[in-house]
Write a structure and sequence with these properties.
By secondary structure, the protein is α+β, with helices and mostly antiparallel strands. Helix content is about 30%, strand content about 10%.
């Protein structure tokens, strides 16, 4: 389902227990926002485990960070994306939050690219 939204150069990687990273080389931050919007719609609209007689609904929170807009190296990129993801969780289920203009040392996270998608 998720791979159907991603392009051939994009990679989905498990980053933690319930956290994933999607690497989207050669895509703009605007493209990343559109892809996360589509992913959110698909995840929110798909009942899971129907074959088992259930209809489980899920939501996802997305944190978006881009090179060079947010960071120049992968450590800061992941840090900013992680902070943006927690900012998204603060916005409520099914949100995405961008890290444009953010500072890895605790400055403004996501102020320029914040998107509420509920």
């Amino acid at each position: 389902m998720i791979h159907g939204v991603l392009g051939p150069d994009d990679s989905l990687v498990r980053y933690g227990g319930d956290e994933f990273v999607i690497l989207m080389p050669r895509r703009s931050q605007t493209d990343a926002l559109e892809i996360t919007r589509r992913l959110r719609l698909i995840l929110n609209g798909t009942p899971f485990l129907q074959d088992e007689g259930l209809a489980i609904k899920v939501t996802a929170s997305f944190g978006i960070a881009a090179v060079p807009e947010d960071a120049q190296d992968r450590e800061n990129l992941l840090l900013i994306a992680d902070r943006a993801m927690f900012g998204s969780k603060d916005q409520g289920p099914g949100s995405h939050y961008g890290g444009t203009g953010s500072d890895p040392d605790g400055g403004r996270i996501g102020q320029a690219a914040q998107r509420r998608t509920n």
